């Protein structure tokens, strides 16, 4: 357990410290990336998305439509940029559409 600080901390600072202490950032990034994908892509793409997984710095997206997969493959760099902007930090460096 971490030492208790006698100084007053804001809730956001306390949560950041908790996440860093318990090494929870990777798990939170996975959840945040899935939410960012759902928000940015909209219902049209989400209806054909079967899974979104983040492993290291690569985002694996499983799609049930080969036509949609081909269309999205043309804009991979833009999708990566948009997702990283939504997340507020550079988490994704590679996008794999399956």
TrEMBL record:
InterPro entries: DciA-like. This is DUF721 domain-containing protein. It comes from Algibacter amylolyticus.
